[in-house]
UniProtKB/TrEMBL annotation:
PANTHER family: INTEGRASE PROTEIN, TRANSPOSASE RV3428C-RELATED
InterPro entries, sorted: Homeodomain-like_sf, InsJ-like_HTH, Integrase_cat-core, ISNCY_transpos, RNaseH-like_sf, RNaseH_sf
One example GO MF annotation: nucleic acid binding
Protein name: Integrase catalytic domain-containing protein
Amino acid sequence: MLITMSDKEIQRLAVLQDVRDHRITQVRAAEILNLSTRQITRLLQKLNQDGVSGMAHASRGQPGHRRHDDLLKSKCLSIIAEHLLGFGPTLAHEKLSSMFDLNIPVETLRRWMTANDLWIPRSKRLKRPYQPRYNRDCFGELIQIDGSYHDWFEGRAAKCCLLVYIDDATGKLLHLRFCEAETTFDYMLSTRAYIEQYGKPLAFYSDKHSVFRVNKKSRQDSQITQFGRILNNLNIDIIFANSPQAKGRVERANRTLQDRLIKEMRLEGIGSIAEANIWLPCFIEQFNQKFAKCARNSKNLHRPLTESDLELDDIFTWQEPRKVTKNLTLTYDKCIYMLEPTELNHKLVGQYISFLEYPDGTVAIMHEGRKINYRVFNKLAGLQQNDVVENKRLGSVLAHIQQQHEELEKQNKRSRLKKSMPSRRAQKNIIKQRKLNPVLDSCS
């Protein structure tokens, strides 16, 4: 006869056998098993009466008191198989409760569905295979872009970001640029420099950074970012990778650059972003000579700039619509702008026009390709604590906050020093006391 026992029950049996063989006392057995001596006596009686099987729990193998009826179980499973096929346990539980008045716990339902092959747990599902993708055939067909935030200058300067543009077909580095943060304006400057040098590629391949993709769920599915608008104007597609492994070429390039580029800049004595950006073309040429490969197809798919693309200054801008008031004014970035009171501008009242902000900080107002003259009327209140800060100027705002904290700390330090120093009246009293001390000493 096979008797199933737990580790606890096996330990009890061994101790009780020692008591029965007079190797230890009942008091000692009670200390070992953390039981009372009366319980040890009862267990010994049960062992002598029923043998080893008396040590096993009596309810083992018996149905539980809270067990659901088999008829109810079969009824639930038949309803799921007929009406709720493909439903998960949680959703099936909700529908059974609301539609069929069967209140079965979710985990109980999960076990029933798993045992009857109505639900496959996530851990037992076949994982989706991510097979390697072949590189593109032509140069300029797909350009992978990414930003790598790292301590590039090994403490000689603050941590910064390196924007990397690499061709998928050849592994050729096409553009590198250091910047303080991975912002829209920095990608504007880098993409423009790349396009002016090579032309327009067919598509860019990037991650789901907020610069490239609107990640906030909205009813407007057609909403795009400022960078996406620029690529749309230039007729360049952008593809988003679902994982870092999908854009493995640029990720591997980042890992190589974090080793080679850092050491090369150390040998060159480069310690700032400005110096590095001037020197980077030399490094790109050396890197491509060593690591770049020939494409399977020698055709270059970069497209030249057309006549409509020549106004790159206006294309690579941050553009937002603003409504013209009846006073011919509009507000942008806490500043009021007044339009010239011309006949054409009076027709713009109540209409939305484009406000352009350039990467260098200058602004312009445009409507249907016509730039409108303006003047600044009034600068509104400064940045408040709870104001929303756009990602494009987050770095400058943080620098401004840091500067304010440093100035406040200096003021607090001066005030502490001032409080620790005695006042002028106290200093005069101390001087008088020192002058009187010799006289008092002589009189004594």
